Fold:
Amino acid sequence: MRVLAAMSGGVDSAVAAARAVAAGHEVVGVHLALSADPATLRTGSRGCCSREDAGDARRVADLLGIPFYVWDFAERFRADVIDDFVESYSRGETPNPCLRCNERIKFEALLDRGMALGFDAVATGHYARLSVEETESGESRPVLRRAVDPGKDQSYVLGVLTPRQLAHSMFPLGDSHKSEVRAEAESSGLPVATKPDSHDICFIPSGDTRAFLGARIGVRPGAVVDADSGDELGRHDGVYGFTIGQRKGLGLPGPAPDGRPRYVTSIDADSGTVTVGGAEHLLSRAMTASSPYWLVDETIREAACHVQIRAHGQATPGYVRRVGDGADARLEISLDEPVRGVAAGQAAVLYRPEPGGDRVLGSGTITASVPAATAP
Structure:
């Protein structure tokens, strides 16, 4: 196959490209220039898409003996990931930019361009497993599963991909542990073998998300109110400075009168109200999600599942119902046990409970949650 290897400049994508070459594919390496300022350098494990990263990716490609190109996707990344991130926070949501990048850049923009140029698949350094099954009608359907290494599993951030996108994807690292990948890179002489992994949000290398958002959204003052009494406890400069479950940085003088810590329990961007309360207010037993993706038989309208709402969170047993079709389609999800900190904007990725609980069933973007105290 003709394979386009997405090379970020890190060890994972380097080994993924090397394995694609070793498997006999015709491989071309491509680095995505996602920063409007390519001179920006990473600081340790913060940031990415820098000139340093592009250089590292090129050195790996030279060592592997494959062609290498840099494609400028900075404008698309700004519009589809950065602007979406800012707008989502301004609505009081908690988005996952890595998930959005996978959905709209690596497996939409990149894949579309690659297929237009005659490539069969895109290979990345994500930790997930991908296989194919035959349906009753004789068609092939991709199967997305968790990686062998539970600590590096990235099936959650890939759960928003469509069957078509998955059918043209390759994840060569899914059957390996991270320690094995680094050892392979070192034994192969790859120059990025000991390079640290990127952490946090790649386009906020400072790590100060509140300052990043504040510079783009501006001051939008509102009230911080108590969940039980409704009393105003303080003021804030914008709901973008808060996320559901947040405990620190609330701008309040201390804990509740009874000594219990306060957490952000809800955010109303329209009124600018941030509500704080005890830990019990963070528990949810049900949620709805829009823009559903379905990776199994389309005739299945409801099923038992395991629900994961964070990239590295635990999956909770529950039940999902698909309601409506097209633009009005949504998921109604109930949980066997309450989950803490469900927030609008997060992705709910669903896994089949048997066998193994590692197969992705589908996903949706959370729009609302039902407090545990009021859930049926």
Summary: The two ends are 52 Å apart (CA to CA). The chain has three domains: 2-187, 219-277, 282-371. The mean pLDDT is 91. The chain has eight helices and 17 strands.
